[in-house]
Design goal:
This protein is mostly helical. The chain has two domains: 1-91, no CATH class; 110-277, Farnesyl Diphosphate Synthase (Orthogonal Bundle). The chain has helices at residues 3-14, 18-22, 27-48, 53-71, 78-87, 94-109, 116-138, 144-163, 165-169, 178-183, 188-192, 198-221, 231-249, 263-276. Helix 7 (116-138) crosses helix 8. The longest helix is centred in the C-terminal third of the chain and has 24 residues, at 198-221.
């Protein structure tokens, strides 16, 4: 199996909505973004699939060294071998790749965030920086496009947090800011024990409204000259906002289920957004 095939398999197996946004890219850009996505999956799985925190830290340290090796022209992992040819082509910066690893390590260091500012810091590392790298691969001529990508990454992560509240709670993690739980009269025990209350629904509606604002703010930042090139991000926004709308329509029953779209619906949204331009 070639490095590109390894990354393609990693992307396809994940079932992620990101996969659908790659379908309409030219081959070279598609290989680059698939390799970046595979890297994100590898380091994320390092944390999620490793029960021993010390072992997870060791693996993340290995990935830090591997990124440095890749930047020096000697990658050893299939993912970095696939990514290395695209680093110079799309101006992918090592500091951004390392920042993603920093974000994964944050999950080993804390399971709560006191306020929204703290949560935003986490979101920048695990999502916004991925948006910046992706925008480079898709093709960004205007510097403002990176501000759009950064904000869109935040919107995606806020949507993930809303969707995965129950799943994260079963891992002992609560990403909803403590200050906002207190504001709406929801306790950590309510979430950890999957108690869906009126207050919980109000809290989640507050989270959803903020996520919608982030989408609107991101789209307002996208320069017209880069809109066509950035269609993969717009496809993702279409799919993620559809998920968010489904969660809202369902009354935010996310503590005991994970709401998602069918593959055919994702494909339809991707095609519709691509054609719209």
């Amino acid at each position: 199996m070639s490095p590109d095939e390894y990354c393609q398999q990693k992307a396809a197996q994940s079932g992620s909505s990101f996969y659908y946004s790659f379908l309409f890219l030219p081959p070279e850009r598609r290989r680059a973004i698939t390799a970046l996505y595979a890297f994100c999956r590898e380091v994320d799985d390092t944390v999620d699939d490793t029960a021993d925190t010390a072992v997870a830290r060791t693996k993340l340290s290995w990935w830090r060294n591997e990124i440095n090796s890749m930047l020096n022209g000697s990658p050893s992992h299939p993912v970095t071998k696939a990514l290395e040819p695209h680093v110079a082509t799309y101006s992918l910066e090592g500091k951004h790749l390392q920042a993603i690893i920093d974000g994964m390590e944050m999950d080993l260091n804390q399971t709560r965030y006191l306020d929204y500012a703290g949560l935003q810091h986490y979101c920048w590392h695990v999502a916004s920086v991925v948006g910046i790298l992706s925008a480079s691969i898709f093709g960004a001529r205007n510097k403002q496009t990176f501000a759009y990508a950064e904000k869109l990454g935040l919107a995606f992560q806020l949507t993930n947090i809303i969707r995965d509240v129950g799943e994260d709670a079963r891992k002992g993690r609560i990403y909803l800011p403590v200050s906002e739980l207190q504001q709406f009269g929801v306790t950590a025990a309510d979430i950890l024990n999957a108690r869906h209350t009126d207050n919980f629904e109000k809290l989640m509606r507050f989270q959803a409204e903020r996520a919608h604002r982030c989408y609107e703010e991101a789209l307002a930042l996208l320069p017209h000259e880069d809109r066509r090139a950035q269609r993969p991000g717009l496809i993702m926004a279409s799919i993620y906002r559809a998920v968010l709308n489904e969660i809202e329509h369902d009354g935010f029953h996310v503590l005991n289920q994970r709401i998602s779209l069918t593959p055919i619906r994702k494909l339809w949204l991707a095609w519709k957004t691509y054609v719209k331009g």
